[in-house]
Amino acid sequence: MKTSPPTTGARPLLLRPLPKRLLLGLTLAVAAATLYLGASFALLLHTNHKTIEARAVNGTMADARRIESYAREVERYTAELQEALEASPFDERRFVELVYRREADSPWKVSLELCLVDSASGLRRALEHKELEPVFRRLRLTLTERARPAETPKAAPAAGWQPARWDGRKHAMTAAYLLPIAPKEEQPIGWIQAGVQMEQLTSLLNRRDMGSYGYRFIAEREGALIAHPSRELLVRGFNILRHAAAAYSAGNAAAVAAAFRNGEPTTVLEPNELSRQPSLVRFEPVARTGWMSGVTLVTGELSVSDAVLKRRSLQLLSAAVALLLLSGLTLFLFSRSGPSLSGIRRLSLLSTALLLAGLLALWTLQVARGKPSPYAEGCITTTLQVERHLEAERRQARRSGAPEPQAIETGILLRSARLDEASQTADLSGILWQRIPDGTDPALAEGLRFPDQIETRLQEEYRIREGGHTVVGRSFTTRIRQDFKTSLYPFDRLDITLRIRPPKDFSPVLFIPDLAAYKLLSPSARTLVADNFSVPGWRIDDTYFTLSRHTYGIDYGQRLADGDRYLKDLVLNVSMGRDWVGTFVSVLIPVFVILTILYSGIRMITNDAEGRKRFNFDAMRTSVIGATLTLFLIFAVKNARGEVVAEDILYVEKIYFMIYFAILANIFIAIALTEEHRFPLFAYRNGLIFRYLYWPFYIGLLYLITLTSFS
Question: Based on the domain organization, do 487 and 572 belong to the same domain?
Fold first, then answer.
């Protein structure tokens, strides 16, 4: 009976001396690279936070200065009218000149209210002259009669800026500046006040772009909001001080209360009142009016893009994993007792744990930071962006001699969606509305279409007249073609793009987003879909508008056209990531189960007769297990290809290819270990080295596959 050659005196290949200086130098180099990447990453985050804070500070300071300037102008204008009304005799021409000059020169649209008591009969008769009637009607100047201020104190508010109030007739929050009318320092015979709609003021402020997404608000010294994107908050009298006391941390609530009380600026980091997203909230006092100008910046929208964070994180993670692996190997080789089998075992466990942690970190990064930045895609969140787009279209029309663009505000709300990945289609339903300005050609303005549609049903739900516009609302159901990019399955993403185009190509009609219809246009707030909107198997990350124009490199047969012919679309984008938890359980956990089964074969295979008898395991059984697992993988790949349509090799298929390799390697090792004449590497303790290298090798290979796929 032949016995295996003695192996006690053999020294495994991995325990032979290595160039220690080279390894030590490599470890130090990787340590320096890791330190550099970590420091630069920390500096990037710190600088980004300071940039956001500086943007908020500069934005509110600029807004406060503009409000001060406008308030000063309104005060000067009201004082001039006061002087003209107090003049004796009353100069009608001077009064009319002041009113019309204000209308022509100032961006503020003010409404004037003149209140007179009975003793002002002479001035009243002069103002009620027929020649002044067109002035009153055109410039929203109202003449009313009230009791003498001395007789009714409540009817005579103090001069200066008055508390803002919600005007139910105008559906707007209005602030007013008031001055008494007292000719020759006599008892006041009335007062004049200039009313300013706060919505118009904020629209003027919004012409200054803050660089990225944010929204402005204005509050009175007592905390009541008087300007805000949400009309609901204005109508119900939302108070920022009460909100801060109830929702902010104790320190931030105290800081906000002190800022309002002392008229000082302050900055806090708290969830905003609309979407509850973490936001940087900056308050800046407006001394002239007693208001607080504020800016809310959603930090998730203004921070470094996810693509940059992902790239930097991958670099730092790879360097850290390499450093820890090299450090473990260095300690193993430089240990006082020298390399040993117990040291190899500890190094194997350490390497496996590090690589597995790195693999989990890669998956987490892909889920958390794998989405593209909406701002890199050109998302529309401010009126300034829309105005710039319209101006560019007007310049293009003038150069080409085309008709002036006719802009139609268009809004949409998605209510449901169903995806068919096999046919690469999406069924969408929701409501879509348009605000058609008076004077727009009905033949061009009526209707819309979805260029990517396979079939669509539109039904008009309402049509109303409102403020110089015809508002038309339609419900819709459409099936559109979509490009499912599934190469990273099950960590892939999908961007649903619904293109909305005027009914006739190359018409002057231009669809623009109805930004005023939405309280909050932060992409991550997902305001373009209903609250209960969901897509089975997917999570919704962002929703936003973009504006696109296409030529496709053709002239559409119009040879005499000056310049390219563009197709212009308003695009609704819904960015989604696959719900990876269920897919992870069904796809990736079986991979680790298969690796464990294969490891058991390496663990039990031996050339010792007693060992084979105890385990009842040999090369033939290894081959049978390998064939069974191969059959399982074939069906798994077929199932994955049936769920998604892939133009490239899927990420999960690369993992399956690794399993194919592991099966073949196991069969080869099993045959080599049971041979009578074996190489020393196989002979040493029946393949002990392979058992120690198994998990670090395959987890490391899985880590490299994931790193290269996600980079």
Answer: yes
* CATH assignment at residue 534: 2.70.170.10
Residue 156 has pLDDT above 90, yes or no: no
What token pair was written down for 252? 């931030």
Which pTM was predicted? 0.74
| Residue 277 maps to a domain | no
Residues 388 and 361 in one domain: no
Residues 348 and 395 in one domain: no
Among residues 569, 218, 545, the alpha carbon closest in space to that of 383 is found at 545
What angle separates helix 589-604 from helix 688-710, to the nearest 10 degrees?
Answer: 160
- Return the bridge partners of 462, or none: 473
- The residue segments making up the domain with residue 564 are 383-578
- Total domains in the chain come to 3
Separation between Cα atoms, residue 681 and residue 672, nearest integer Å: 10
Give residue-wise pLDDT tens across range 214-262: 788 999 999 999 998 888 888 888 999 999 999 999 999 999 999 999 9
Q: How far apart are CA 478 and CA 458, in angstroms?
A: 8
Distance CA 256, CA 660 (A): 63
529, 545, 578: which is the final residue of a domain?
Answer: 578
CA distance 454 to 476: 13
Q: Which two tokens stand for residue 589?
A: 């956990």
DSSP string, 139-181: TTEEEEE---TTT-GGGSPPSEEEEEEEETTTTEEEEEEEEEE
Place of tokens 């005007």: 167
Q: 């938890």: which residue's tokens? A: 581
* Secondary structure, 3-state, 541-562: EEEEEEEEEECCCCCCCCCCCC
> In the 3-class helix/strand/coil scheme, how is 460-498 assigned residue by residue?
EEEEEEECCEEEEEEEEEEEEECCCCCCCCCCCEEEEEE
Together in a domain, 649 and 689: yes
**Domain stops at, among 527, 562, 578:** 578
Residue 680 in this model has a pLDDT that exceeds 50: yes
Task: For 467-492, write each residue's pLDDT tens digit.
Answer: 788 999 999 999 999 888 778 888 88
Distance CA 495, CA 371 (A): 10
Assess contact for 472 and 463: CB atoms under 8 A.
yes
Task: Count other C-beta atoms under 10 Å from residue 693's C-beta.
Answer: 17
- 3-class SS of residue 446: coil
DSSP 335-388: -TT-S-HHHHHHHHHHHHHHHHHHHHHHHHHHHHH-SPPTTTTT-B-SHHHHHH
- Does 649 share its domain with 542? no
- With 90 as the cut, is the pLDDT of residue 115 above it? no
Q: 421-457: per-residue pLDDT in tens?
A: 878 899 999 999 999 998 887 777 788 999 999 999 9
CB 292 within 8 A of CB 64: no
Identify whether residues 323 and 437 lie together within a single domain: no
